[in-house]
Design brief:
This protein is an alpha/beta fold. It contains 22 helices and 25 strands. The strands form seven sheets. Strands 3-1-5-6-7-8-9 form a seven-stranded mixed beta sheet, sandwiched between helices. Strands 12-13-14-15-16 form a five-stranded parallel beta sheet. A four-stranded mixed beta sheet has the order 20-21-22-23. Helix 10 crosses helix 11 and helix 11 packs parallel to helix 12.
Length: 572
Amino acid sequence: MHGRRVLSPVLLLGAGTGEATCGILYLAGYLRRGGIEAFVRLYDGDETEDEVARSLEALVARVRPRLVGISLKWFHHVHRALLLARTLREIDPDIRIVVGGNTASYWWRELHAFDCIDHIVLGDGERPLLALCQGEPSPPNCVTKGPDGSPRRLPLEYVQGATNSEDVYYSHFNDIFLSHQDRHAFSGWVAPGKGCGENCLYCGGARGNQKAAFGRAKPFLRSEESVRRDHQEIAHRTWQFRYDFAGSSAAFLQGTWAGVDLSRHSCMYFLWGVARMELIDALAQTFEHVHMVLDIGCFSEQQRHEQMRRGLLKPCASDQQLLEIIDGCRRYKNLDVEVSGIAGLPFASAATLEEEVRLVERVIALDCLVGYQRLEAQPGALATEHPTRFDMVSEARTFTEFLEYFEQREPGDVSVPMLRFRDAALERAVQRTSEHVDALARTHEEKKQRIAINGRTRLKNTAPSTLRFKLGDWLGAHRVPAKVAQEQVTVVRSVNGTGLACAPSLSPRRFTDPTLDQGEDGRILLTTLAAFEQPTTVASAVAQLGATLKLDPHSAREVIEHLVDGRFLQPA
């Protein structure tokens, strides 16, 4: 590299708890193909600051990274991104710390002020991050520190589009994960394209911000070949695929699926625009099961059309179009529909609130799920930046206000700042309607998922995947002491993706991990599953568990019901 200081290995993290964005997986593969030893931590379950510190210390000791990249895509992760950066700086001051993603690009000026961050990548990250790792003195799209500590923003030269993104695709899934547990946390996200051409008033990632942060004036579809490589890399490693891009046509997706057998996979598709039946047909005919989420903006047609008329909302289906789409979907027994909308959008009134409830009730009557949430404040969104235009107030607008909000949240709290109406009476009415609709949706979902069982009910173990690993391989060598690394873990996945990791031979006194069912608990779960390898009545299994495990009938029934709720056991 002509005397440059190459930064490798590299560790990529997500800034939030749960599964990180799929962006770090694309980045890791790109870096690997560029000669950089890259690793990811895809899933993060840490809640307290002490847990964060212990996890990062173990990761740093295992990888010995010279650069850590933190994906700050979502605005509600800004506090956690800074916590990760500060903790890493304390663990090893020599590690170069880089943040990137939509939110990092939007708030780059504010983030630059924190001395725990060395670089900020603006917009698309593959080429800039590789340039940083290769020691290039002027990496594109990057904010670095000048000699006086002031921000030095380099030109936004790397902007992905349809003609220059062929080298962005999934690869090296056997190399980039540090544990089997982390790899199994991958939910199958594939990005057929990038960007957005709409200016929805509630969205911080709308067209204007895309242009400012990414330099991308309009969305694009990636090359068919690169998306096909995604499917080829992950099809045998995941049980489902997830997509959320409006521009994917049936013909495009079918081209990316060519040569890949997806007949035993599930699919979740988040459709932003008006669904075309040929796309629905292609999904239902390709996958074993499809869950399609239809986003209609809001459940009031009057309110929806008013926003579209003003250019404040993407094209959405009318009520009649929506009902016709649902009717078309009902032809497929392997396809479920969820209708999604936002409550509390501008131009609400008593009449629009009544419309919302009527449509929700009609959708539920057609056995569709309902996704419904109140309008949240997103940095850069029109409604957040200019709430008075809509006679609203925002609970946070500036970087400081958002950061303070998230700093004050308790562990496990996932709330976000909201936008509310100035008119107190209208705000109360919107909130009452929101709570009513939430209750309707929750009751319907619980009823839809409930399986009533009695002693005569015949159940069968329908778990499609049961795998066994050594504990050190499952959790990762950096998390497991050598003395228990050889203990066996049985990992079971249900038909809806719920997972169990059972270590029946591992006493909690020797080692404990909150993600494991250990010792007697693990043995009970595995023995109960084994009791239903063939269709068996609940009463018969209860008697069998009493004989083999000395479980009383009430406890045995509780275990069976738990496995039914997780869809490990289903009616035979």
